[in-house]
Amino acid sequence: MHVHLVFVTKFRHKVFDDRHLTRLQQIMRDVCADFEAELIEFNGENNHVHLLVNYPPKMAVARLVNSLKGVSSRRLRQEFPDLAHHYYQANKLWSGSYFAGSVGGPPLSAVKQYIEQQNPPG
C-alpha cells in the first residue's frame, strides 16, 4: 500500500534548510526500514515535508507517522543544536496534525512527480 504524507512544522515556522532536509530524508528512510516500509520519494521546503511511503497492509499509518515525527524531531534536535529555538511546548518540532492520503487513484508516477516539483528551500 502507498501513502502520501505531509508533515508541517509547529506554527509553520520556517525551520529547514538543505542540510536539514537532506538529513531528514535519511532519518525518514531509516525509520521506514524499521517498519518494513520503503520511502519511495521525499521532498520538502523550509516549513514542511512530503513523503511517499510503500508500507505493509498490516501496519497502522498512525503508528508509522508517530515514529517518523518522533524520531526525526529527536535526532534533528541532537544533531543540529541551532534548531533548539524552533522547538515549542514540550520540545515539539512538528505540528500535531498531518496529512495522509492513500495513493491508488492517480498513477504513482503522478504523485512522485508532484512531490519532486515542490519548490526547494531558497
Automatic annotation (TrEMBL):
InterPro entries: Transposase_17, Transposase_17_sf. Residues 2-118 form the Transposase IS200-like domain. One of its GO terms (molecular function) is transposase activity. GO terms for biological process: DNA transposition. Pfam families: Y1_Tnp. PANTHER family: TRANSPOSASE FOR INSERTION SEQUENCE ELEMENT IS200. This is Putative transposase. It comes from Actinoplanes regularis.
